[in-house]
Structure formats: structure tokens, C-alpha cells
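Box S2. Input/output pair 1.
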Amino acid sequence: MIPLLLKIAKTGIVSEPPPEADDELRTRAPEIQAEILRLAYEDTVTGLPNRGMFSAKLAEAVEAYRRDGTPVAVLLMDLDRFKLINDSLGHAMGNLVLKTSCSPPGQLLAGMG
């Protein structure tokens, strides 16, 4: 186990090695911080952004709208009977359906439930 000091900042989770950490830990700290952020904002099964990432990106988009009028839109989709896809075809197929259903390049598709 690698010890890290975790701080919650306005910009997200900031991790840094404790003062007594060795050189290897100091070298790997940025890699570890990136992994912590990935785990905090990504669904580990589908690889899609999770509710936390969606909220952060939405806040950024709203701020851009307030600042300079950049358009923002949110579309919520509910896939009726999605459980049937998972149950009959398996979770791998369900994940594929989610990933390919509605995410054009440059857009954000996030798992909410």
C-alpha cells in the first residue's frame, strides 16, 4: 500500500506524498493522483463518466454560458427495460449499448443510475 495525503480542493482531489516518502513514491505521485481522479469520475465497469463527472462538466458548461454565452443543453434519456438487455444478453452487451447509443464526438455521455 502506498501512503498519500489526500486533500479536497476546489479543483478536485489533490494527493501528495507525505514528507517522509521515498523518491519512488514522489516520482509516482502524479500517476497515482491521476488514477484517483479517474476512479472518482469514471464508472469502472463501463468506463463512462459517472454522476460526479457529469455534475462537474455541467457546472463548467453553465459557467461558460454565464461568462460568454456559450450554448449549453442537457438531454436526459431513460432506456426503458434496459434491465432486460443486461439480463438476456449480459452486462458486456448492455455496456456496449450504453457506450454506443448516443455519444457523438465532443459530447458527454454519463451513467446516472
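Box S3. Input/output pair 2.
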Amino acid sequence: MHFLGGSVVALGIFSLRDFRVPLVKRYVSLIPVTLFVIAVALLWEFYEIMIGIPIELNHEFDTSIDLLLGTLGGIVGYVVGESISNLQD
């Protein structure tokens, strides 16, 4: 689920172009997109804690796996978005 969420967040940045939102080219490169995906994943993990999702015995491991999968999903979403963007140009 976190992998898919990371991909959706990364692809969401690319979809802003379809809504004619002006984006600086350097903000739609791998590092800024990945950092944005990590920030969203961290906010989601804090949200889970705040709403009281039961904390498991190994919640540190679970959180680190969630962040890893979200980041990997974001990278895959970036690659897909960049390849679709190159096809449209």
C-alpha cells in the first residue's frame, strides 16, 4: 500500500502539468520529487500515530519498511512520469 501511495504522490506532481500549473524544471527532477514523497510518507506515519492506530511491538521496523516502500514507489512513479512526459514532448 505504501509503495502505491509513493507512486501516486510522485505521479501527482507530474499531473500538475496537465492542469497548466507552471513548474520549474529543477523541481521535477528525481531528488526533489523523492524528498517530497518522503515528506508525505513521514507525515502519514505521524498521522497514524496521532489517530491512535495500534502500535505493534515492532513498530520501528514497520515504520522503516513503510518509509522504504513509499520511497521506492516514489522513484518508480518518477520514472513512469518522466517517461510519459518524454513521450508527450
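Caption for Box S3: The CA atoms of residues 8 and 81 lie 10 Å apart. The chain has a mean pLDDT of 87.
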